[in-house]
Amino acid sequence: MGDLVIRSEQLSKRYRIGALQQGYRTLRETLVDLAKAPYRAARRAVRRESKPGEQLIWALRDIDFEVHQGEVLGIIGRNGAGKSTLLKVLSRITEPTTGRVRVAGRVGSLLEVGTGFHPELTGRENIYLNGAILGMRNAEIDQRFDEIVAFSEIEKFIDTPVKHYSSGMFLRLAFAVAAHLTPEILLVDEVLAVGDERFQKKCMGKMESVGKEGRTVLFVSHNMNAIQRLCQRVILLEDGKVRADGETSEVISEYLNADRSEAECKEWSEPALAPGDETARLKRVRLLDRSNALCSSFEIREPVQIEVEYWAFNPEYPFMPILLIHNENSVCVLESAANHDPAYNGKSRRRGIYRSVCTIPGNFLNEGMYNVDVLVRVLVPRQYFIRESNLLSFRVQDSGSGLSVKGDFPKAWSGVVAPMLPWETEVRPLGSGVGTPGSPHKTIVPASVSAEGKSPPKKKK
């Protein structure tokens, strides 16, 4: 395989659900079945694919990918996409239904808290047991033992059976063992979501160091920040198939925007059907271009107008519309409220239909997809009457035809926003005594003052 450490070819895994689970079997039943085996072969050839009451589920279907030595590969996808099943096949906990996978190197798995731990054994004994499973000699484990115990922070309980450990202690020891026993390949499934924040940060740091040591890591997580921080490449699974495989930020963006489509208008004909309560209800939310036409795709140089209409039924509250704009990484780019609008500021709302328009100027938002949340509330005390997420979606793009913050730069611009901020530049001619172009620049320090701001010592005659 050369520097390839994992190769998956047409890998598929099927489960049967809805079938009665088989109970324990006696020795007599097993011997009888062995005697009947030759006669069952013919019947098996014509047996139906599934029995009545069963359903076949493909957790993985025709998975092809390769992993090179030293790669830190992220695996993402929604619940049920096949992520955990894939790691179980790679760690040989379960066999594939069809296809094959080749793994070169010792594999350390942290798929569930305490996987591979024997509850009756002490922490010390479980460390040596896991090392032996990985094919390590006792001398190798001895070298790592103190480091494992120190990382897990359970020195006082290392000789206590792990069945008496709390879930946090169990987790710390399990991660420490998996990360320190030097497997060539480390499989990690969402364990960083467990434990306190301090230990999560500690695990993240260890994962980074494992990657820098040249070991191969496959990391399953729903935490996109962790995936972005640790992984150079990401595979996106969807319904047991590979939907995307590539550079981390691009695949994460595709995953986060999978269910987003550009939507320029939401409207409700009757208050009873609209979001809200007896105080206020949404009537219409629209995205408009500068000519007030419906639009869901905007040039980076053009303004984005967001119109909010709502019914007001209760004149008691000085409520107002508020917009939250999120980018494709679910980061809140901005929040804007009508509290500085003279029509709203501190005033009660008489009954009626209100229409407000918020304008985001051109050359402000960066390229990408955006979602719009709409709220109607009182600021102080904070009280919500309408709170609707992801009502509308729109895209900002740069065609390159005109002035923007990118100028002539052809690639994506960094930053959550991309405003054209004012810059002023002045040029002064080089004075005498200053290095000319091509010669080193010299800083002239007055003879009476040294670099530390003190007078230099006088020379003796």
Task: Describe what this molecule looks like in 3D.
The chain is α/β, with parallel strands linked by helices and 461 residues long. The protein has 2 domains: 4-22 and 53-256, P-loop containing nucleotide triphosphate hydrolases (Rossmann fold, 3-Layer(aba) Sandwich), CATH 3.40.50.300; 265-397, Distorted Sandwich (Coagulation Factor XIII, Chain A, domain 1), CATH 2.70.50.60. Helices cover 21% and strands 30% of the residues. It has 8 helices and 18 strands. Strands 5-6-7-3-8-9 form a 6-stranded mixed sheet, with helices on both faces. Strand 8 and strand 9 (241-247) form a beta hairpin. It is globular. The model is unreliable at 20-24, 41-48 and 441-456 (pLDDT under 50).
Topology (SSEs and partners):
Elements: E1 4-17, H1 27-45, E2 55-68, E3 72-76, H2 83-90, E4 98-103, E5 107-110, H3 123-133, H4 138-152, H5 167-180, E6 185-189, H6 197-212, E7 216-220, H7 224-230, E8 233-238, E9 241-247, H8 248-256, E10 265-267, E11 280-288, E12 297-299, E13 304-312, E14 320-327, E15 332-337, E16 352-360, E17 368-378, E18 383-397
Parallel strand pairs: 3-7, 3-8, 5-6, 6-7, 12-18
Antiparallel strand pairs: 1-2, 1-4, 8-9, 10-11, 11-13, 13-16, 14-15, 14-17, 17-18
Helix pairs in contact: 4-5
Instruction: Enumerate the spans where pLDDT stays under 50 for 5 or more consecutive residues.
Output: 20-24, 41-48, 441-456
Order of SSEs, N→C?
Answer: EHEEHEEHHHEHEHEEHEEEEEEEEE
Q: What is the total tally of β strands?
A: 18
- Report the sheet with the most strands, covering strand number, pairing sense and barrel closure: 6 strands, mixed
Q: DSSP helix count?
A: 8
Proportion in β-strands: 25-35%
Q: Name the CATH architecture of the largest domain.
A: 3-Layer(aba) Sandwich
Indicate how many domains the architecture comprises.
2
| SS-derived structural category | alpha/beta
Shape designation = globular
Write down the CATH topology of the largest domain: Rossmann fold
Distance between the termini: 78 Å
